From TrEMBL:
Domain LysM: 263-307
Protein name, per record: Peptidase, M23 family
Transmembrane segments: none
PANTHER family hit by this protein: MUREIN HYDROLASE ACTIVATOR ENVC, PEPTIDASE-RELATED
Domain of life where this protein originates: Bacteria
SUPFAM superfamilies per UniProt: Duplicated hybrid motif, LysM domain
Amino acid sequence: MILKCIKTVATVAFAMVSINVAGQDLLARQAPIDRKLKAVDSLALVRQIKAEQAVYPAYSLYPTWENQRVHAYGNTVSVPDTFRIDLSGFCMPTTHTKITSKCGPRWRRMHNGLDIKVYIGDTIRAAFDGRVRMVKYERRGYGKYVVIRHDNGLETIYGHLSKQIVAENEYVKAGDPIGLGGNTGRSTGSHLHFETRFLGEVINPEFMFDFPNQDIVADSYLFIKGANRYAYQRTRALAAVKSGKMDQVVAKQQASEGNSSVRYHKIKKGDTLGRISRIYHVSIDRLCQLNGIKRTTILRPGQVLKCS
């Protein structure tokens, strides 16, 4: 009887050892498969991200996609103080070089783009890769126009066309024909009205596009909030960036405009709550309350604090 029990225990122990060895062997064989699956998952994720970017260009910047209004954002977006826009892969929207009206005040109203002399029927092309957000007609404004949102965060507007040859939600590549030059809408002669905007903020196209030389001004453009329409504002803001005083410039600008909207500050090396409170004219206790932190909280570069 005792011998029989010993045999039984030995058999069970041997079986358990065999199962354990077999399990380890199975895991060893499974490891390369897991690595392959992870690689497949990573590729699938990359493809998914690219697909989303194609469907909604600059989707990480813009909260909405709609086809009803050109200036659809208002206070619904948080515009960064600075943002570098990639201008590589561009195409000039027209081969014509004569600018007939610049960006800025005109006839007691703001002219938010450039007018370039073109003739009825001339081909107008997409400036960058992107997706067509709007194809509309505005009798007392843009006339027949096209709005494209680009992968680099810009939106471009092409107005007074005689014909639109793209559809809303269509993806286009830089250089693809999108319309023909015309004289529709509020226009006194055939020309292309060309606007460039970032999150709804007007950027003077001449800061990026050199129409006389049919080229871009540089490979990238540093967007500075509130300093993208007039040359003197941009010169002053760029000088502030180079001297490391951009935060003070932005704060003074917001104070002078009586801006009551939410303001944010991106932490840089050396920043303290005291320094930030002086820049934005808000107490340290208020900063802590707005951000759920304490006076002793360590501020890390790249961290964003709400300042109003």
